[in-house]
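Re: weekly structure request thread

Next one in the queue (143 aa):
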Amino acid sequence: MLKKSWDRLLNDLKKAWIPITASVAYIVIMTLVVGEVCPSKIIIGVPCAGCGMVRAFILLLLLRFKEAFIMHPGIYVMLITFIIFMIMRYILNTNVKWIKLLLIISLSLLIIIFVIRILTSFGTEPLILYDKSILFQIAHLFY
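Done, posted below.
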């Protein structure tokens, strides 16, 4: 059973290596060049539901759990979702329908967390307007 799970994981990684590599490259390049990763923030200057997630993930890797939660409470939803997904996909060999349901529930929770964060924390990092965005720069040309 372990060999079957390992083979499935390797097969999935072979299929997904291009998007995984592109995502990592995007995050690294945008962080180094622009200082921001979020396309919403870069283009229109408004944070998205995932704003702070990369920083929260890095804080999680550094075992700074409270700071990770403060940066983005949804990091733990994503962590739990990832663990459940790994168990469902590679250990239990669960039907894709249940994995999709797991993702829908997780994304719904992230949207709820985003609304709560906007209502309670807008104006604090990472939920701030980004005045270096393309939209703000164009607006400054006219005002």
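The radius of gyration is 18 Å. The chain has a mean pLDDT of 89.
Next request, please.
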